Amino acid sequence: SQTIHQWPATLVQPVGSPLSLECTVEGTSNPNLYWYRQAAGRGLQLLFYSVGIGQISSEVPQNLSASRPQDRQFILSSKKLLLSDSGFYLCAWSVRAKQRGDSTGELFFGEGSRLTVL
Amino acid sequence: SQQGEEDPQALSIQEGENATMNCSYKTSINNLQWYRQNSGRGLVHLILIRSNEREKHSGRLRVTLDTSKKSSSLLITASRAADTASYFCAPVHIAGGTSYGKLTFGQGTILTVHP
User: Fold this and answer.
1) Is the CB of residue A81 less than 8 Å away from at least one CB of chain B?
2) DSSP string covering A29-64, please?
3) What residue of B is the nearest CA neighbor of A34?
4) Cα–Cα distance between A73 and B84 in angstroms, integer?
5) Chain A residues closer than 8 Å to B7 by CB
6) What is the pLDDT, as a whole number, of residue B98?
7) What is the mean pLDDT of residues B80-104?
8) CB-based contact B83:B76 (threshold 8 Å)
9) Distance, in angstroms, between A10 CA and closest chain B CA?
């Protein structure tokens, strides 16, 4: 069965410090991978998605970047954190559709990483 | 991708009552999905309804879809305190070719079920 792991679960970082959140998926190959952010009491904002190694699409201009060094590994980074980067970060994966109709787009989420920037 | 808009923003009911949440969207879809999020946790997929379906059941969940009105509803019958969570809808349009991309989510409906 497929599993998704995300770490660290909780992180408190000072403004200006770097960030690295990691996500790995097991039990599947060639997944689509996603990073979402959820501010307190708000909906989910899609930050990045990836359809393959080294292929990253950014949805929102911001202080963050993403990388996919391996097929099932997705990393969210920042060189210098801002207060506004605080939030709950969720990694997710979905089956990559090879042709119309062979996948539903269902997302499988990790347990999230709560980042507090002070 | 398009975002669903959930309504109401918050819903507070007693255990045993039914809870109904609504979702509206703007463009054509292949399917619409509902997700649940317990406080501080990741989202969990609940149920998917395809564009050619009008109603679907899964346990105490009933989902309806009206493509002419571009709306969907999620009904939880005989609610329990454990149903307390945020609920999100995600309308999905699957383009042709390879990867179709991403789901986007609205603010969700916060459901509180009082014991």
Assistant:
1) no
2) SS-EEEEEEE-TTS-EEEEEEEEETTEEEESS-SS-
3) B102
4) 32
5) none
6) 41
7) 79
8) yes
9) 11
pLDDT of residue B100: 52
How far is Cα B108 from Cα B115, in angstroms, rounded to an integer? Answer: 22
Q: Rounded distance, CA A41 to CA A88, Å?
A: 10
Tell the residue number behind the tokens 């949805």, with chain if given. A59
Minimum distance, in Å, between the CA of residue B14 and any CA atom of chain A:
22
Which tokens go with B88? Answer: 């999100």
Pick the residue of B30, B35, B58, B102 with the most A CBs within 10 A to test the interface with A by mutation.
Answer: B102
A102 pLDDT more than 70: no
CA distances from B94 to A17, A77, B52, B91 (A): 39, 29, 14, 10
* Residue given tokens 């990393």 in the structure block: A75
Contact (CB<8Å) B40/A98: no
A80-102 b/e (C-beta count within 10 Å ≥ 16 → b) = ebeeebbbbbbbbbbbbbeeeee
